[in-house]
Amino acid sequence: MNLNKKLFDKTKKIVFSLLFMILVIQFLSPANFSAGAFEFEASLKFMGSGRTFIHFPPLGKIIAPTHIPPLDFHLTLKNINLEEMSEFIGNFSQTGFWPEKIIREIKINIIKYITSLLLLAFFLGMASILLWTRHNINKKEMFWAGLVNILVLLFFLTVALLSFNMTAFSRAEYEGILEAAPWVLSTLQEGIGVIENIGIQFMEVVENISFLHKEIEKNNPLVENKDTKRILHVSDIHNNPAAFDFIQRIVETFDVEMIIDTGDLVDYGTLLEMELFSQFFTNIDIPYIFIPGNHESPLVVEQLKKIKNVTVLEEGIIEIAGLNIAGIADPASYSTAMVVADDTAMENTAKKLHEIVNGAERADIIAAHNPEFFKYLRNNNYILLGGHQHKPYIKKGENYIEINAGTTGASGIRGLKNLDINFSLILLNFRYSEAEGVFFPFSADLIKVTQFPLNFSFERFIFQN
Q1: How far apart are CA 268 and CA 261, in angstroms?
Q2: Residue 284 placed within a domain
Q3: What does the buried/exposed string (b/e) look like for 209-222 if buried means 16 or more CB atoms within 10 Å of the residue's CB?
């Protein structure tokens, strides 16, 4: 009877020790480590269903049933060092493979994390005996409790690792923005070659557009002198690298003096996207006015503000090259979530833009991402530049001109998905009026390039004779 009681007491202590270990590890802060340009958090959760969670804040997460329960593994990408990332991208483009160094560092850090968990399990076992019997300390019981904790945790980890199946990620679940990941990845695999070919084709396309431009000039000449300004309006690039080739060739061919971009330069609002096309801004040495769209984020906006020739117009009016440009950011750009602003925010933004323009001495150009923000400004002969709708148009109202550049990036990855690749941008020509002392729009040239099959168009809209 006495022997049974002792055995029962020891069993209770072991069970208490195990439960104490599970509870602490369940709510333990994740371990942080670096691998190349990437900073990660790793954590282990009991009472799981044998899944691996890979978190990419704020984009979402990937969940795969990779191993036998009851453990769940969590790996979170916390930060990316952009300087190191530039080197990584260069190496990746040259080799086409994930650098072995990064894989090795991840494995080493995971082993370190598991080792630390096993040591923690041992000390938690010892501590549990102290909590159970504060007065009669039995070092032997403490040792055995710690050893049992290690063995149990090691058993679960071994079972999970031996049963770990990497192919489970082929049937993974995606949450958040990453729900688009499966078709994005497959589209990118097919689309990289398409993008490269388009970039090459733009050289010939822009030369042909230049020829059409000269032919049109014979009938509708635009006298170019110091009192003439040519402005390029682009919008909704959505990370498409081919768009930057298109823009650069147009700028060089038509002697563009300024670019106005009405937003959605990126797709997911991440700094990594900014890094991928940072070279473009190095090559463009003319003023670049940027009005944030709903796909931007505070991180992207702040990064753009650091670029020498870029002026981010979030709210207000600025004077550049003799033109007063009024603008306002899409309210969604102040958030990390890729959403469209609700009706209240849209209405408030439209009213705020109206106040900005009314409070200014004059506004030669009014720019915003969403044309809905022009609700109170379709009057007074205003020039309105927008995007968002991915459909280009030039509309001359009774006493206003509304222009939409469509999508200069052919809707980005979404366009690649269905090979619906339609690039568009607008060339605006302004003339100086000696009588009024201001610049007036003379004409707008709508340039569209469509792929599959390749064709292009150049349309001129005359505003003043």
Answers
A1: 17
A2: yes
A3: beebbeebeeeeeb
* Domain limit, last residue, from 141, 171, 201: 171
Q: What is the DSSP string of 416-458?
A: HHTT--EEEEEEEEEEEETTTTEEEEEEEEEEEEETTTTEEEE
Task: Please check the confidence at residue 394 and state whether its pLDDT lies above 50.
Answer: yes
The pLDDT, as a whole number, for residue 135 is 61
Give the residue from 260, 239, 198 showing the smallest Cα distance to 413: 239
Do 165 and 196 belong together in one domain? Answer: no
pLDDT at 191 over 80: no
pTM of this structure: 0.65
| Domain range for 98 | 2-171
Residues 6+ apart with CB under 8 A from 50: 65, 66, 67, 68, 69, 70, 71, 72, 160, 163
Residue 401 covered by a domain: yes
pLDDT band at 233 (very low <50, low <70, confident <90, very high): very high
Sequential DSSP letters for 77-95: EEEE-HHHHHHHHHHHHHH
Report the C-alpha gap between 153 and 277 in whole angstroms: 46
